[in-house]
Amino acid sequence: SGGSGNIKPEQMTPEVWDFIYLNGAMPKTTIPKDLLEKMRKEFRYWYPMDLRASGKDLIQNHLSFCLYNHACVWPDEKEMWPRGFFCNGLTLVNNEKMSKSKGNFFTLEDIMKKHSADA
């Protein structure tokens, strides 16, 4: 049906994607201008990612390429690059590997709030 904006896949041209993600020029399209601007604004609200949490085994592939891709897509907008990465499997909590699936995942901010920065 085209989703909430009633946009068809064929309307999502490279120029439309460039407008939304790369602050490109307003594209020639049948998508209403106010909807395009809303889409760009929503993307810019949620980006960049604040924290990417993943396993230490993914450092050499997924996490490295995440950085490379952001640097390539936004070479002149470093503020769009990820703000932080956290690698599970390097820290123990109560003698168990820290893991999101085990529910014992904490950020440094969580630890500082609970124990102070001097802990």
Mind explaining what this structure looks like?
This protein has about 120 residues and is α+β, with helices and mostly antiparallel strands. It is built from 4 helices and 4 strands, in the order H-H-E-H-E-E-E-H. Helix content is about 40%, strand content about 10%. A two-stranded parallel ribbon has the order 1-2. Helix 3 (about 60-75) links the parallel strand 1 (about 50-55) and strand 2 (about 85-90). The protein is elongated.
- Widest β-sheet, arrangement of strands: 1-2
Structural class: alpha+beta
Topology order in helix (H) and strand (E) letters: HHEHEEEH
Helix amount, in percent?
Answer: 25-40%
Radius of gyration over all CA atoms, rounded: 20 Å
Count of individual helical segments: 4
Ends distance: 54 Å
Beta-strand percentage range: 5-15%
- Which outline best applies? elongated
Largest sheet: 2 strands, parallel
**Overall mean pLDDT score?**
89
* Unreliable stretches: none
In short:
With 119 residues, the chain is α+β, with helices and mostly antiparallel strands.
